C-alpha cells in the first residue's frame, strides 16, 4: 500500500507565494519586437538548464496576456537585470503601454529586444513549452550571449536587493 504524506496544511496560493519567496532569484526582462511593437515582461523564474544544447527556462503564468504575442516572435531577448534595475523591473511588470517608456534597448536583426545596461543578454528561440499547472514552463534555446561586469538585481520575499558580499570559499 502506498502511504501518501498526510498534511493538514492548507496550501493556498498566499501561503505558497510566501514559501516560494524565501528562495532568492535574479530577474530577467523577456522581450521582443512583434508587429512593430516592443512587448515584454519581467520574470524571476529564469533558470539555466543545459550547456549542450544551450538551454535556459522561464516559467510564465497561463493568464499572461503578453506571452501569446511574445511567443510569435522569431527571437526572444532575455536580459539579466542589474542591481539598479528595481524600478525597471516594476515597469516591465506594470501596465503594458508603459513597459518600454524611456528604456534604452537594442533590437536585434531577428527581433529580440535586449536592455542595453543589463548584466547578460541572451538571444533565444522557443525549444519547447510544457504545461505546468497554472503556468507554462518554456525551454529556450540560446543563439547568442554576451555579459558584462556588475552586480545582479535580487528578488527576495517580494522585495529587491543586491548581492552585498560573497562568502569566502
Ligand atoms: C520581480 C518580478 C518577477 C516576476 N516573475 C514572473 C515570472 O517568473 N513569471 C510570470 O509569469 N510573471 C512574472 N512576473 C509578472 C510579469 O512581469 C507580468 O506582470 C505578468 O506576466 C502580467 O503581465 P502580462 O499579462 O502582460 O503577462 C514577475 C513580476 C515581478 C515584479
UniProtKB/TrEMBL annotation:
Looking up InterPro entries in the UniProt record yields: Flavin_Rdtase-like_dom (IPR002563), NADH-dep_flavin_reductase (IPR050268), Split_barrel_FMN-bd (IPR012349)
| Species whose genome carries this gene | freshwater metagenome
Note the Gene3D superfamilies from the entry.
Electron Transport, Fmn-binding Protein, Chain A
The GO terms this record gives for MF are:
FMN binding; riboflavin reductase (NADPH) activity
Question: SUPFAM superfamilies this protein is in?
Answer: FMN-binding split barrel
Name under which the protein is recorded: Unannotated protein
UniProt keyword terms in alphabetical order:
Oxidoreductase
Q: Where is the Flavin reductase like domain?
A: 20-162
State the family it belongs to: Belongs to the non-flavoprotein flavin reductase family.
